[in-house]
Specification:
The chain is α+β, with helices and mostly antiparallel strands. The protein has eleven helices and six strands. The strands form two sheets. It has a four-stranded antiparallel beta sheet with strand order 2-3-5-6, with no helix packed on it. A two-stranded parallel ribbon has the order 1-4. Strand 2 and strand 3 form a beta hairpin. Helix 2 runs parallel beside helix 6, helix 7 runs antiparallel to helix 9 and helix 8 packs antiparallel against helix 9. It is elongated. It starts with 6 loop residues before the first helix and ends in a 17-residue tail after the last helix.
Amino acid sequence: MSGRVPFGARLRFAFMNQTIAQLPCRRWLVAVAATGLSGLLQLSNAAESPPANTNAPSIALDALVADVLEHNPELNFYRAEIAAVKGERRTAATWANPEVSTTVGQKQVRSGGLSDEGVAWSVSVQQTFEYPGRLALRKAIANRQIELAGLGYEQFKGALAARARELAFSIFIAQENAEAAHAVADRYQALAETMVQREPAGVTPLLETRILEANALIFHRHASQATLSAQSEVLELNQLRGQPLESPVRVSAAELKFPAPLEIGVLLAAARTNNFELRMRQAELAQQGFSVSLAKNERFPSVTIGPFLSEESAADKERILGVGISVPVPLWNRNAGKIQTANARLQQAQTLLRVSQLEVERAVTTRAAAYQTKTEEMSHWRADAVQRLREAAELADRHYRLGAVPIATYVELQKQYLDGLEAVLETRHEALAAAQELQRLTGINLNAAPPAKGESLQP
């Protein structure tokens, strides 16, 4: 996992990148004593602590991903966004309401010294009709907005699944490293306790005891760091799952295959068709094209038509029934500013689409190269490489107790076991991350292809 120093690097720092047998006795004794004393106060508590979540039920990696996709609270935001833009489309497809207006008043008539009074009133109903094609353009823009919201939802789900899978595998790595480091540290500690109970015959047994004690401290520290790393990622995973942050999680080993990489041409063609970002840019470009057409359509005025009825009763009764038409005269505003803005936005959308294509192609090429490198590296491994190293470390422990193996060989085997385990897990982690990113970029499920030889998540 990122940010963690490999076990081998820390050991090489502790022992100054030299085997124990090659160091002069005094310098070697000072280095070992300094290592033990400097770490004693900080690591005494960690040396006694067991790995975290050892009693938590194991959950399969795919089950964790499915749980995240089902219960992630942020998905509700994207669902609500889709509902919101569907409401906007409904609004865009709705005609304007008719307007009813009425007037009432008093009328006086005076003629030749005679006068009369009466009531005058009028009522009218008016309906505004948009210029032909304007309503369809608004509906088309709203439909593109729904498409964008749906693409955003699917893109978030894909990124969420990839992040959940990567987090689960990182937790698995940290838990495996913590358990292995605890096992090695316990061996050192048990041997050191055994050596203390014996009668030291010379300086060699005393120095070997200090070596064992120092390594017990160092590897307990490795285990504590791996445990803390797992706990940090468990918090994020529980947040994605919508579960209480303190819920324990233990990831079980899954048979996760690493198929052979596809040709770069196939991946690039798939990315141009399936990539969510490119599809969103294309939808935005189409939407902006409709916006330009709408801006041009709005140069022409809407027409308001409706019947009216008016009546006046003073001296005599007069009633008028007719149809009124209202049309704005486009003398000063021909919507030129809005058309200019829409054309500029269209050019921006075209540029963004081209830039996004180049970025996606670069990302696909980079990830494909990384995935190919990692799969080629894994193809050279023995299927039981880690198991053989574990058995060699256990064998060295038994034979060192019998005096058949020198301490330098014993220490090196324990270190190489942990380094080998971490190298295998980290390489698979990097291959998984590259595969997840390729799937996000291209929409191709690499696991649907025939798997490579015997590569699984189980070390």
